[in-house]
Amino acid sequence: MADVSGVLGSEPSVYQLFADHETMVDPYPLYQRVLAERPVESTGGPVVLTRYADVTVALRHPGLSTDERNDAIYRAMAASGQMTAGVVAMMDRRSLLHRDPPDHTRLRSVLGAALDRDRIDRLTPVIQGLVDDAIDAVAGRGAIELIDDLAYPVPLAVACSLLGTTADEHRGAAWWRSQLCSDFEAPAVAGADCADYSRRVQDEMVACFEAIIDRKRQSPADDLVSALVAAERRGELTAEEVNDTCRLLLVAAHETTTDLIANGMLALLRHPAQLRLLRENPALAPCAVEEVLRYDTPIQFTRRVAVEDFEVNGTPITTGQMVLLWLAAANRDPAEFPDPDRFDITRNRRSHLGFGAGIHSCLAIPLARLQGQIALGALCRRLVEPKLGADPPPYLPNAIHAVRELPIAFRGVTPRYPERRVAVT
């Protein structure tokens, strides 16, 4: 655990503290102090909001944009030539995650119609089969490396199943388990190295999906890529928007779910009574997922840019100013969540901000919940006497609170439910 004693009395801004990897491995002691002593920071740079009430208002405020091309620093850097033409082009081809109404409304409507609840519900036996297969594969080992063996390949396989592609089409690429910092770090904040890397990754993903999309144009099927191609034919999407949406889906539909499963098992193993409670009461799986998303939020923060002057609960924000909304700190705000640092799977609160809020809340919430419930439920039920191999585990150095490895030892594996075995092709 990082030592944060006296840290808020020193020179670094809250934003600089949050940028320190060692601190962010276990950021929650720092969040406690920030919420108590400096819940709002506005010193000329980005405005940092950490209180639940402030973050919730900001997430829904029409004066805040997700399109970072509105950022005054980005505009100045682009105008002065500090942004390469490639990076500027990359910013012009970002998904609905970085679009405002009316384009965002149109794109989300098309994707929402394609990603309907019936399509997600049909994945239930597929997900259960993938999870059970992953556990069966390590049964004789007495150990599982949760990320490589289950938490990453299962959501990736599910995302590929939705899209109508295969994991083999993406395996070995530069963005294999990469944190696409183009989606989480603004070029004006992250610097040229991250922005250039993101551009190269985006170019590779664009080329990969162009081949997949061309194949679906020739041979459509019952999958999301084909549904997006059909929307393009109806004039609802451009060809570029089809590709941009496919790239977003591949990353968004699996990376944060990987972190949800890993963070969930880490919390449960650190709290054996809660793990035992879930094992004995499988119906608590939905509550357990919500508590994991509150207690150890995979997406720790999100960004907005002001497109007008206004105030958030008394904090002035000016046009072109970046606002950092600290979701993970808001989810530990005692004003909203009693005893917020206690992990309790019976809390039964969906008011957390793990999925964001407002028009930009996660579109695939039902899919993430479904995978988390199945994976955590099966792991708690089937692994006999599971124990952490390392605590704390190593984390990836990026904006997502992502465990790099999570080795778990166990004494045995209980049988799967035979009726849930499903062959996945």
SSE arrangement:
Layout: H1 14-18, H2 21-25, H3 28-37, E1 40-41, E2 47-49, H4 52-60, E3 64-65, H5 72-79, H6 85-91, H7 103-114, H8 117-121, H9 124-137, E4 143-145, H10 146-151, H11 153-163, H12 181-184, H13 187-190, H14 192-218, H15 224-233, H16 239-252, H17 255-270, H18 272-280, H19 285-295, E5 302-306, E6 310-312, E7 315-317, E8 322-325, H20 327-330, H21 365-382, E9 383-384, E10 387-388, E11 407-409, E12 412-413
Parallel strand pairs: 2-8
Antiparallel strand pairs: 1-2, 3-5, 4-11, 5-8, 6-7, 9-12, 10-11
Helix pairs in contact: 9-11, 9-21, 11-16, 14-16, 15-16, 17-19, 17-21, 19-21
Verbal overview:
- This protein has 425 residues and is α+β, with helices and mostly antiparallel strands.
- The chain has a single domain (39-420), classed as Cytochrome p450.
- The chain is 49% helix and 8% strand.
- It has helices at residues 14-18, 21-25, 28-37, 52-60, 72-79, 85-91, 103-114, 117-121, 124-137, 146-151, 153-163, 181-184, 187-190, 192-218, 224-233, 239-252, 255-270, 272-280, 285-295, 327-330, 365-382, and strands at residues 40-41, 47-49, 64-65, 143-145, 302-306, 310-312, 315-317, 322-325, 383-384, 387-388, 407-409, 412-413.
- Strands 1-2-8-5-3 form a five-stranded mixed sheet, with helices on one face.
- Helix 17 crosses helix 19.
- It is globular, with a radius of gyration of 21 Å.
- Residues 1-7, 178-190 and 419-425 have low confidence and may be disordered.
